[in-house]
Specification:
single chain, about 100 residues, alpha/beta, Rossmann fold, four-stranded parallel sheet, 4 strands, about 45% helix
Length: about 100
């Protein structure tokens, strides 16, 4: 399975709602909550990605998913669109003043 949707929006910009919508549309969506659920293995994969994004194991990180929103994937959106060139990008935005509050 390959990513079809890449969420480039930062946390607190409606990523949970976007994940829920994508789930309802039939996508299997990766969200920060998956990192927590999967624990050490997931944390190590993301740590490796942070150390050297060009050699990250994206296939293993997103195994079983065809969409992603929220952290940590949103940090890597530019790399992910190169790795998954056919994926569509969703950019969630929020008023900066409201986001800061």
């Amino acid at each position: 399975m390959s990513l079809k949707i890449i969420g480039a929006g930062f946390g607190r910009t409606g990523t949970v709602s976007t994940k829920m919508a994508l789930d309802q549309l039939g996508f299997k969506c990766y969200h920060m909550t998956e990192v927590v659920k999967k624990g050490r293995t997931s944390i190590q994969l993301w740590s490796n990605a942070a150390d050297d994004p060009s050699s990250a194991d994206w296939e293993r990180i997103f195994n079983g998913y065809d969409a992603t929103v929220d952290w940590p994937a949103a940090h890597f959106w530019k790399i992910l669109i190169d790795y998954y060139p056919d994926a569509k990008v969703i950019l969630n935005v929020r008023d900066p003043e409201k986001w800061y509050e």
